[in-house]
Design a protein that fits this description.
Arc Repressor Mutant, subunit A; about 230 residues; 8 helices
């Protein structure tokens, strides 16, 4: 049975499929949420933070292709497309849109379980819930981050922001991408919220010289973790 910390989001407009998959996956030890269309899924991805997303293609409001393209902007989750569209052209399109795997309906539940396990092993190899990135240690189970072995006292928003920067270590992230991932598409607060929270993080990291979180003028921010593993 998998580590119960792993979360799966099932996105399908067919209520019978949502129910069947939800019951089966819960029985296997996973934590499961469902969504009936892409728009609902976007909000649940941000709040539920799944490791794997099982995604139908043909849905109202926002189809699976559009959702699949959007997921990498807000989540590190693996995506498994689950659909009746079985031509090679459909499969190639789904993979090019960002899907990590593709399973055609009808399917055997055991095969889906095996594909989920593959994605978890590939994307989340450390089943203890810890990931070491340079000087940082992320404990996803406890929702904590340590710097040089010392746990940082972070608010939930600071934790989400620092986690996002760490998962994208040494990459320059625009303020727009950070805003979408940490605060969501529907955020209507102050425009400078990203700068404010970057400042909070720098203070808690003792990063007065901005050597850990660098400002890349005109582009955004880049975190350099040091001694990256």
């Amino acid at each position: 049975m998998p580590n119960p910390k792993f979360k799966i989001l099932v996105v399908d407009d067919d209520p019978s499929i949502r129910q069947m998959l939800s019951l089966g996956l819960i029985q296997e030890g996973y934590e499961v949420e469902t969504a009936e269309n892409g728009e609902i899924a976007l909000e649940k991805i941000r709040t539920f933070e799944p490791q794997v997303i099982i995604l139908d293609i043909m849905m109202p409001v926002m189809d699976g292709y559009d959702l699949c393209q959007t997921i990498p902007q807000i989540s590190n989750a693996s995506t498994i497309m689950l659909t009746a569209k079985d031509t090679s052209q459909d499969i190639v399109k789904g993979l090019r849109m960002g899907a990590n795997d593709y399973l055609v309906k009808p399917f055997h539940f055991e095969e889906l379980l095996a594909r989920i396990e593959v994605q978890l092993r590939n994307r989340f190899p450390d089943l203890t819930g810890q990931k070491v990135i340079g000087r940082f240690t992320i404990n996803e189970l406890q929702k904590t981050i340590a710097l040089d072995g010392k746990v940082l006292h972070l608010s939930p928003t600071e934790y989400r922001l620092l986690t996002y920067l760490l998962w994208n270590v040494n990459q320059t992230l625009s303020k727009e991408k950070i805003l979408v991932h940490v605060w969501g598409y529907d955020f209507e607060g102050e425009d400078n919220i990203v700068e404010v929270y970057i400042s909070y993080l720098r203070e808690k990291l003792g990063d007065n010289s901005h050597k850990i979180i660098k400002t890349i003028r005109g582009l955004g921010y880049r975190l350099e973790a040091g001694n990256e593993n």
